């Protein structure tokens, strides 16, 4: 008796499924959508409601002009039916615009930012060529740098000085973005904040942070000289980082509002006294790592 009830119930369910599927097929869009699928009707019938959702997304995609116009549930993805044996699995599959976007932004995973605005990952050298003449020697050096880097000739980085807002950070970041596109792992570090954060992490991830900027394949120490000077930051942080990077031929870039002479002066004076020899040693290391250049330009900050 129980078995007969079960059979009858199954049959009723099946009839309901057929009805609901046939009902949905009276919609022309749904009908055309299911006809276009390489899936047999007896399987399709079990998934009417999900197929309706998939059809709506399919329709959205058909007329879509780009990611910014996406009307689907998950931006850049389309809910699609995929047949597996006798069942249908529904998955979100990325669309062509999303694939293009992911491809174009793949390089960003090679860029580690430390307290830098994330828009810096968009900085591009194509925006830099037009503009004033003081950029020309820098851009020329960038080309030389890239050529030498490719040939594993260990080119030096730059120590880029210049006034506030002249575009120093933007320029070096644009170069590092290009390097990231060539799969070089770059770190862009806002140095004064890095020091503060390093100082407060003695009990936690001090060595991870330290090793991370020591080992980056290409490094920007942004705004060096703007930090509070201490014996610790000069002798225990900056000195060893520069020493390590010199020994391992790791390209290192600096931006600063100070010239090297001014930086030397600043490094020599800490709260505990004056030490010209130690400051000199840091400057020598910077000169080993980077070529000093100046960027003259108006303040581009709005
Ligand atoms: P600096 O590091 O010399 O103080 P920034 O690199 O921060 O200057 O540049 C100042 C502002 O101008 C930033 O908002 C930056 O995004 C913008 N900027 C600088 N150079 C360019 C450029 N070539 N194209 C577009 N924006 C730029
Ligand atoms: Mg800057």
Helix content: 40-55%
Strand portion, in percent?
15-25%
Written as H for each helix and E for each strand, in order along the chain, the element string is: HHHHEEHEHEHEHHEHEHEEHE
Bound molecules: adenosine-5'-diphosphate, magnesium ion
The CATH topology of the largest domain is: Rossmann fold
Span from first to last CA? 82 Å
Q: What's the shape?
A: elongated
Overall tally of structural domains: 2
Coarse structural class: alpha/beta
CATH architecture of the largest domain: 3-Layer(aba) Sandwich
Question: Mean pLDDT score, rounded?
Answer: 92
Please tally the β strands and state the result: 10
| Radius of gyration from the alpha-carbon trace, in angstroms | 30 Å
CATH class of the largest domain: Alpha Beta
Description:
This protein is about 50% helix and about 15% strand. It is α/β, with parallel strands linked by helices and about 300 residues long. The chain has 12 helices and 10 strands. Helix 9 (about 205-215) packs across helix 10 (about 230-245) and helix 11 (about 260-270) runs antiparallel to helix 12. A 6-stranded parallel sheet has the order 3-5-6-7-4-10, with helices on both faces. The protein has a two-stranded antiparallel ribbon with strand order 1-2. The protein folds into 2 domains: about 1-100, no CATH class; about 105-295, P-loop containing nucleotide triphosphate hydrolases (Rossmann fold, 3-Layer(aba) Sandwich). The relative contact order is 0.10. The N and C termini lie far apart (about 80 Å). It has helices at about 1-25, 30-35, 40-45, 50-60, 95-105, 135-150, 170-180, 190-200, 205-215, 230-245, 260-270, 275-290; strands at about 75-85, 85-95, 110-115, 155-160, 185-190, 220, 250-255, 270, 275, 290-295. The structure holds adenosine-5'-diphosphate and magnesium ion. Adenosine-5'-diphosphate binds near residues 127, 162, 167, 169 and 255.
């Amino acid at each position: 008796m129980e078995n007969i009830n079960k059979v009858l119930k199954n049959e009723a369910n099946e009839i309901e499924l057929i009805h609901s599927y046939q009902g949905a097929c009276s919609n022309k869009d749904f009908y055309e959508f299911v006809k276009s699928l390489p899936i047999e009707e007896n399987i399709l019938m079990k998934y009417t409601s999900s197929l309706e959702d998939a059809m709506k997304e399919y329709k959205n995609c058909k007329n879509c002009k780009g990611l910014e116009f996406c009307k689907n549930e998950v931006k850049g993805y389309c809910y699609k039916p995929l047949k597996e044996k006798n069942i249908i699995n529904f998955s979100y599959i990325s669309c062509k615009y999303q694939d293009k976007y992911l491809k174009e932004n793949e390089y960003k995973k090679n860029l580690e930012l430390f307290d830098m605005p994330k828009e810096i990952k968009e900085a591009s050298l194509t925006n830099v060529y037009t503009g004033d003449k003081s950029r020309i020697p820098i851009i020329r050096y960038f080309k030389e740098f890239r050529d030498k880097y490719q040939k594993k000739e260990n080119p030096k980085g730059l120590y880029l000085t210049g006034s506030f807002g002249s575009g120093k950070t933007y320029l070096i970041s644009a170069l590092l973005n290009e390097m990231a596109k060539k799969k070089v792992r770059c770190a862009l570090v806002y140095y004064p904040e890095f020091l503060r954060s390093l100082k407060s992490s003695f009990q936690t991830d001090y060595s991870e942070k330290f090793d991370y900027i020591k080992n980056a394949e290409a490094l920007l120490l942004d705004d060096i000289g703007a930090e509070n000077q201490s014996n610790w930051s000069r002798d225990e942080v900056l000195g060893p980082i520069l020493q390590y990077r010199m020994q391992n031929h790791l390209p290192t870039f600096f931006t600063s509002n100070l010239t090297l002479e001014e930086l030397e002066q600043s490094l020599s004076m800490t709260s505990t006294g004056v030490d010209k020899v130690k400051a000199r040693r840091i400057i020598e290391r910077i000169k080993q790592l980077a070529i000093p250049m100046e960027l003259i330009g108006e303040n581009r900050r709005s």
